Amino acid sequence: MILLEFIKSIPHKIRKLDFSSPGRKKFGTFGGVFTPDVLTILGVIMYLRLGWVVGNAGFIGALVIILLAKAITICTALSMSSITTNIKIGAGGAYSIISKSLGLEAGGSVGIPFYISQTLSTALYIIGFTEGWIRIFPGHPPLVISMIAWIILLSISYISTHFAIRIQYFIMVIIGLSLISFFLTTSEPNENIVLIGQFEDADFWLVFAIFFPAVTGIMAGANMSGDLENPRKSIPQGTLLAIGVTLLIYVAIAYVAANFIPQIELRQNQMAMVDYALWAPLVIMGILAATFSSALGSIVGAPRILQALAEQKTIPYSKLFAAKTKTNEPRNALIFTAVLIALALFFGNLDALASLITMFFLITYGMLNLVVFIQQSMQIISFRPSFKIPRFVSLFGAIGCGFIMVLINPIFSILAIIIIIILYIWLGRQGLHTEGGDIRGGMFLVIAEKASRIAAKFPRHQVTWKPDLLLPIDDPKVWSGSLHFIRNITYPSGSIFAFTVKEKSEEKTESELRDLVSPLDKQGILINSTVIEDPNFVHGARLVIQTLKGGSFRPNTLFLTLGSDKKNDAIINEIVLQATKHKIGSIILRQHPRLAFGMQKDVNFWIRDKSPNWHLGMLIALQLQLNWEGQLNLITATTNDGDKRRLQYFLERLSDKARLPSETEFNVLVGSFKENLSSAPSADINIFGLADELPFPFMREAPELTKSSCLFVKDSGQESALA
């Protein structure tokens, strides 16, 4: 509040001045994009480091460095131009583009660090301005100069963005005059122009890394997207024009420096542009103007990113920061940003954060290129920009940004990526929602489609088997007792296709089916569900089995439950026959009416010597043992006591081949089958193989004999427990 009252104390007449054009509330291409872009790109590095680059690399080497650095920003600008002619850009520029494409989580995870980078960049530019001022007036206290500059910048941006843009026009004139003063140098031409330097102070890539921040700043105009009359037109035109103009300026400076300033001076005197200019004070004014204008561009753009983040409820206190004045000024966001800048200034030297700031800029550029490359690769009809670019442009821009990040500072690159990942996870838990939607679902669908085409070229192998269940459900309202058990069969990599058959499909039935399987979906199991309209349940189930047979992600195991009502036996038998016909395994659960699944620990798997129908049963037993973290008992039975030793060896050898857990116990039971069922080790589930003809009487009797729920399994021939 104290800060707000201070700003309000600015003379009344100045605050009331109308700096905007009559009837015009938003900016065009020149004022809203070109001017802030140019003034952010033409910064202090141009004045104090470009000569050093020429001194080390020579004119040709410097030209290569300039063109390579510009190539990254040109690709980013082209990608940004392409996507801005395809979607309606909201406030926040790059944040808006990424959010509309990859979702609020991705937009926020990049937008929050990008906002902080813009804010801290303002502090860096103020410190750069202060250092330039101290060179002229060495006796002035640095912190006082920084705070005065901060107050002036805040006052300009608080009064009006239009006023800030008008100030930038004046600054642009000063920078232009300073460049003319340098180009009109009275120095004699060098006898020998160094075309290729010796890189005495640093190698090529280090020189490149030091120069690269000079070409950033292309987002200054995009950050104003919410204040532009026509963002689709202004952002492409203004950004590309700014890059072209600044490229010519950099090349011209490099040429003049190489021709008129001795190489040793370029390397050792960072004020060479001042000393060799026609009128040195004008260049010094240009240095001050460049740092001031960069700071002004950042302090105008950063609050708009914060306000855009708040509008989508991506950050805390969203209502406060999303507020705007009647003149479209994000005053609350501006004041908060100004406070952060002031705190940064009190800490003094921000060199330690400079690399991290650059990383966030590069990540933003890289994400923009990646967004465009993804949409180009998806080949979706909704991506039809009026400004088209080749795919290699966006790909080169994305890869180039990653390469430059590692080149500048590998440690800060990793740190920046970790921060963005943490933010993405945090935002993903906030339940963010946007009405406009994004391309994530389509993106993963395209990936899945391409993967399915590749997978279709290879036959399904037993090595890749996982439980993909086909789940016919007669009545979703009463069918929930086995849901947790099904989860233990399919988790973590399996899937479920659930369906019910009704004579008439109703929204209520579909909702009940979705609600039934939604707990499994929340646990990370892939779920698909549908309601089939058919008067006959068996006929509807047959259609589902036949239809899914042609899919790339088809179920491999039918799951049924056996109740007490015998009238459904014929239906179960027919569905199992259809599953067998189409090479789908079958599981039939007969749940114990009182004990259910007990402690969900021990699993008994019954197997016969030389039986071909045991692979699916063992795979299901292993799934249960892993998810229950319990005991697996391998059981076989015989009526001949003399076979006991041979069967014991059979179980041990089978366990070894199937790589069963070392704690698996082997049991050979002697006697009649029913006696063996009663004397078997106590377990929470008993698993049996099924013959071709389903033994319904035994299946209903088994739970009482074993005192546990029972699972009856029939192989499809497509699975192997030995794979």
Textual characterization of the structure:
With 723 residues, this protein is α/β, with parallel strands linked by helices. It contains 28 helices and 10 strands. Helix 26 links the parallel strand 7 and strand 8 (665-670). Helix 7 (142-159) packs antiparallel against helix 16. It is elongated and about 115 Å long. It starts with a helix and ends in a 9-residue tail after the last strand.
Query: Which descriptor suits the 3D outline?
Result: elongated
CATH class of the largest domain: Mainly Alpha
Could you give the order of strands across the largest sheet?
3-2-1-4-5-10-9-6-7-8
Spans where pLDDT lies below 50 across 5 or more residues: 1-24
Number of helices: 28
Identify the quaternary structure here.
single chain
The description of the largest β-sheet is:
10 strands, mixed
The amount of helix comes to 55-70%
Q: What is the CATH topology of the largest domain?
A: Amino acid/polyamine transporter I
**Can you give the mean pLDDT?**
83
Going by helix content, strand content and strand pairing, the class is alpha/beta
Task: Tell me what portion of residues adopts beta-strand conformation.
Answer: 5-15%
Euclidean distance between termini CA atoms: 71 Å
* Radius of gyration (Å): 36 Å
Name of the CATH architecture of the largest domain: Up-down Bundle
CATH fourth-tier homologous superfamily of the largest domain:
Amino acid/polyamine transporter I
Number of domains: 2
Number of extended strands: 10
